[in-house]
Amino acid sequence: MLNGRSTALQAIAGHNLKGMLAVVTGSGGIGRQAALALAAAGAEVVLGGRRAADLRQAEAEIGAAVPGAIVEGLPLDLESPASVEHFAQAVLGRERPVSFLVANAGVAACPQSFNELGVERHFATNVLGHALLTALLVPALRAASAARIVCLTSSAHQFTPVVFDDISFRHRLYDRLIAYAQSKTGCVLLAVHLGSQLAQYGITVHAVHPGLVQTDIMRHLSDEDRLSIATMQAGIQPKTAAQGAATVIWAAVEPRLAGQPTRYLEDCSVAPLIDFPMGNDYGYGVMAHALDFEAAAQLWAWAEGTLSRDLNL
């Protein structure tokens, strides 16, 4: 029985993914461990990441752990629509069905900045970039048999809905943790919308909270931020990246999740609905504002308007 202490390799044990193509964004931490597990089960993996050195390190590490693994790292900056387009075209150029898309890459607790479209960095990277990437890869996902999309999120979503009339903090005080939290709500809403629209093609979409994993994504946190987070998460047991990736893999391969409406998953199980942030001793659960279908549709419409293009699914 898988649980919160299970690893990605334990979650994928017994699965044969030979001949399947997986796309994973983010070449470090959880993304790397998810890619390693997928490769261990026989999948060919394309990793997207911003830093060439990290991509080469991921290729080498996975190749050493899984002899014969087929893993290729390609440049991807989710904050840049042009970079997303280039990455997607490289994947589509393989003329292969994509069986798995793991939308994992992200940023956290960054100083305030905006992408070329004027979108706040957390939302531009964590949400908008993945929305565009998914839309571009839909033809390859539809070509696969029962493809899965996994959208990484966080319990931080509990602290705020998406503020659609000021997503980029132009008219309210910028708070780097709230900006991150808002983007993580956006990630769940993205999964909800994708799930509702792509189910007709046999594509299953789930949102995953990996747990408390200390990875490079936290590099921008100040000492004050770290103390605040540590206080809120005092009862939560930290995980390794391999443990954090377990629920990602479970979402991707668990037969009982196939064809299910979008779920918010954590610790290799479906999370309960909660009424207020950190509504129990361990911070588990999903807030209703992250599962709202109207907000999910509004998010997609916002993305299309921001990108000035139809994101056809």
From TrEMBL:
UniProt keyword annotations, A-Z: Oxidoreductase
Q: Does the keyword Lipoprotein apply?
A: no
Q: Does the keyword Kinase apply?
A: no
One GO MF annotation is: oxidoreductase activity
Read off the Pfam families from this record: adh_short
- Family from the record: Belongs to the short-chain dehydrogenases/reductases (SDR) family.
UniProt protein name: Oxidoreductase
Please give the organism: Novosphingobium colocasiae
